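Chapter summary example.
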Amino acid sequence: MTPRSVVYGPLVTLDAGGNKWTNLAAGVAASDAATVSQLGSAGPVSSVFGRTGAVVAVAGDYYGAVPAALTGATQASRFAGATVSGAPVAGTFAVGDHVLSLADGKWYVCTVAGTPGTWVTPASGAGVTYGTPAVVLGTAAANGSIDEAIRRDSTIVAFDATVPSTQAYGDAAATGSAAVAARRDHKHAMPATPVTSIAKAGSSAITGAATLTGGTGIALTQSSNDISIAATGSAGAMTQLADTTLGSGATTIDLTSISGSYNHLRLLCQLRVDEITSDDWIYLRFNNDSGGNYSDNGFWIITTTFQAVANETAQTKGRLALVCGSTATANAATIVTIDIPNYTGTTFFKQYTANFTGVPTSASRVETGQLGGQWHSTAAITRITLLPTSNNFITGSRVTLYGIT
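The structure predicted for these 405 residues follows.
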């Protein structure tokens, strides 16, 4: 028979049927057995992470960690796991819980406990300081020192709002110091008056070629150590002021804003009109005056026939020349030279002479003549308008205006 109990000494009993030891003394050494009373002396667990009662450990308890009141970080916080993307949308979380979004690598922190609670992420701007951009355009890269971010829609100063300075002849080259860039279409002002003389430094005589030459309208004069440049040319020089060739028919040829810097004017013309005739008269007006202030007279010769032009007064335009019309010989035109002396003077009325030559009907019928006229005004001439009797000057008609010094 197998005994159900064995007694060891006066106190300790092994109850094999009940599978337990009785009357054991409380253990003392590390290798001693512990009694039930020793194991239960600390009492049952009453709460875990704020949960009370019959506490059952859950997966979150093993993920989380409670700080042991570390200085400066005494609030509860725990790593609560990861999501596929973004903040948790289900489950109950406490303030301080943080999770990782695997889709974008962002951290989310629970700021208000609940199901699922309120979550924020530092990537959305929490804790970031933004400042006004102060990026400086320079010639070398350099690290900055201000720990602030620049927003995506910030404006960076790149272009100069200051008007460029006026360049002066003889300015030295300079790198500049403004830390902004100039716009592509910016302009520098130019000096109002160009240099009109060149002086040689020192007292020695200028050596070299004895003759000085210049371009059209430029006279170079050497005197001792100086070379002078006359911008207007010598007396009698002609300077082109305007040149017009018609690209299509026109009822007038108008020369406006004529400079007053010369003594006399000359017009060289090659003209044809589209009136249905072999030739017809053309006229002029000064300063767009269409009042009865013009008078003229003259003559012309056709082969050997002399013909006088009827004297006209109080006309609204001054007669100039007979020019080829639409029925004239193909490709024929009339040349006209018009001289206007002292056009800026204010003492006398303005006068003109016009000489013309054309071949309106055949190579054997040359037509040439001369007319003179007067505009009854002492005003300076600033505009000259040429007009046909009717219709238009044709394509290819050309007028060139010169100023004579």
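To summarize the output: The CA atoms of residues 114 and 145 lie 41 Å apart.
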